[in-house]
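Summary for the lay section of the report: proteins are chains of building blocks that fold into shapes. Here we show the chain for HelD family protein and then a coded description of the shape we predicted for it.
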Amino acid sequence: MHSPTPTDTLAADSTDPLGRERSHLAASRAALKAMREDVEALDLRDVAGTWVSAQVLQKQVDERIKALADLAHTPLFFGRLDYLHAISEAASEGSGGERFYIGRRHVHDAGGDPMVIDWRAPVSQPFYRASRTEPLDVAKRRRFGYTGGELTAYEDENLSDPDEADTGSALLAAEIEKPRVGPMRDIVATIQPEQDEIVRADVTGTICVQGAPGTGKTAVGLHRVAYLLYAHRERLARTGTLVVGPNRSFLQYIEQVLPALGELDVAQATVQELVGHVEVRGTDSAETARIKGDARMARVLRNAVRAGITLPTEPCTVVRGSRRWRVPAYELEEIVRELMDREIRYGAALEALPQRIAHAVLVKMEQGGEAPDDRVQDAVARNAAVKATVKACWPAVDPVKLVHRLLGDAEFLAAAADGILDAGEQAALRWARPPRSARTAPWSAADAVLIDEAADLVHRTPSLGHVVVDEAQDLSPMQYRAVGRRCTTGSATVLGDLAQGTTPWATGSWQEALHHLGKDGAHVEELTQGFRVPGEVIAYASRLLPAIAPGLAPATSVRDLPGSLVLRHVPDGLDDAVLDACREALRHEGSVGLIAADARVPALASALAAAGLPHLDPGTETTADARLTLVPASLAKGLEYDHVVLDEPAAIVSGEPDHRTGLRRLYVSLTRAVSGLTVLHAQPLPTELD
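The coded shape description reads as follows.
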C-alpha cells in the first residue's frame, strides 16, 4: 500500500482537497498504529526492580495500549484550524500561519510532530470559540463529515474574511441530527461556545448546569471530566474522579462516552451504590422517604451518635509497678468536654481520649520524679483502667446498629429528635414492627443514606478530586450531603433540570441544592438552547412548565423539523395502535423508544412479543437488528431515542404520588425524541397541555 509523502500531500491539496484530507487521515491512523506498536513492544524486564513495580508498570502499559486504540467507526479527527500566524514554539520565525487537525486524542509522527491535536489542548479551543466577530487569529475552520468511519465531506468557514456570508454549518447540523444506534454518543465534534465554557471551567471551582432537555448537559458534564483529566491528570489520578447517575441503566447508557475520548479510569456509581452499607430490601412511603431525606435528619443523627457520651463521675486510677496514679474526675471531665467542644469526628475523639488520659497520667509521673517516654504513654493508653473509663464516657458507635436503634426505639428517637421533628414525623420514621437485629432489618434506600451520614459522623468519608452528579434535581438533601462528602476537598459538576424533578423530595432551587452539597456560592449556568429535541416537540412539552417549574424559561431548539410531533386520539384498541406506531417508527433509521407508565409495561411487553416485535430493556445497547426499547416512564430520564412512541400520557401522570410529580414525569417522557414523537392516548390529555 502506498503511503502518502509530503509531496503527494501538497499536490493533492491543490487539485483534490478531499483526497488530501483522506491521505492525512490514513497517515494519522498509521501513525497511531505505530504509537501503539511502540508501547506494545516495550520490555519491562530490565526496568522493573521488583515484582510489585513490574505489575504497576505493566498495568500502566496496558492502559496506554487501550488508550491508543483506533476505533474504526469513530473519526480520528473532526476538524481543522488554519491560523493566520504561527503559534507553536516549534514553528520557525516568519513561517506564517500553522495548521492543526483537531481530534479525540493526540497523534504524532515518527519525528514527534503532531498530526492530530487533542480537542482538550489550548490550541484546539478556538475550534469551539472562534467566530466572525472574534476569529481568535483563525483564518479558516474546517469541519469534516464521515460515513461509517470514512471521510466523505468537508466544510469551510473563512472566519477572517469579512466578505464571506455567515451561514449555518450543514455538517454540524447533520452531526447533531445523526441517528442514535448504540450507546450515548460523544459531542466533541459539536460542542458549542457556551458548552465549551462549562467544559473548560477551572478544576478548583464547582459549577452547576441547569439544562433544559436536549441542551447536552449530560454530555457536557462527561466531556468536562475528560477535559479535567487531560489538564490536571496528575492531580486527579491521585485523588480520583466519579460520575454519579440516577440508576444503573443510565450509567450503562453513558459508559461508552469517556472511553471514546481516551479516558478509561473514571468510576461510575448511583447514589445507592455509594452508600451501600446494608442490603436494601424494604421500601418507604413517599412521606416517610421525604422525612428521611430531610436535612434535619443530619441533626437527629448527630444527637444520636453523641447520645452515649457521659461525663465521668469517678477518677481513673492506673497501677504501674508499685505505684498508683490517679486522674480525678474533674480532670477527666475537662478532657471529655474539650473533645465535645472541638466538634471533631466521633471516632477520632474516641481514638484521642485514651491518649489524652494517658498524657494526664504521664504529667503526674513527671511530677513524681519519673521520666516516662512515648512508649510509656502508649502502654498507659492501653491500660485496663483507662479502657474502662473511655468505654464508660465515650462508647464506640456502630453506624448500622445506631440507625437500627433510632428507627426501632421510640424513646431513643424522641430524645435525638427533640425540637427537630414533631411527633407525627417521628411516628412516620419508626418501624411498625421493629426487627430483632440490624442484619434482618428491612432497610430502605433512604435508610442507607442515613447510615452513611452516621458513618461519616464517626469517621470522615474520603474525598475525591472531582465528582459529576447528573439528574441532580432528584436528590434529597441527605443524598446531596452523601455526594458532597465525596468531594469535600475537591470540586463538583452538578447537572440537572428543575422541571424534571420526579421525586417527592426534588429540590426547589439550585442554591438550596448546592448548600446541602456543601458548595455554597458555586456558579450556576443555564443552558436553554436545545440541539437534540425538535422545536415542535420541545414547544409542546414546554406547555407544562408553568405548572411544574414556573421560574424556568422555555427551551428553544436549533432544529426545526415540521411534522416531528404527532398526536393521536385512540378511543378503542390502544395497544394495537401502539404496535402500529412502533412498526412505523422502525421503518425509519435509528433507535426507537416506546415509553409508557410503569403499570402499562407488562401488558405492552406481552403485546410486543405476541406481535413478533423484539424489544430491549433500558440501558441495553441497541444494534442494527434490535432498535426498539420498551421504557418504563420512571427510567426514561436521561435517555434519548430517534423516534419515541409515547403511550397514554394520563397514565404516566396518575402513576405518580401527586399531580405535579406526574406532570414532571410526563415532561421527561415527552422530551426523549431526537427526530419524531408520536403520542397515543385513549384518555383525555392533561389540561396543562391545552
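Put simply, here is one thing we learned. The mean pLDDT is 89.
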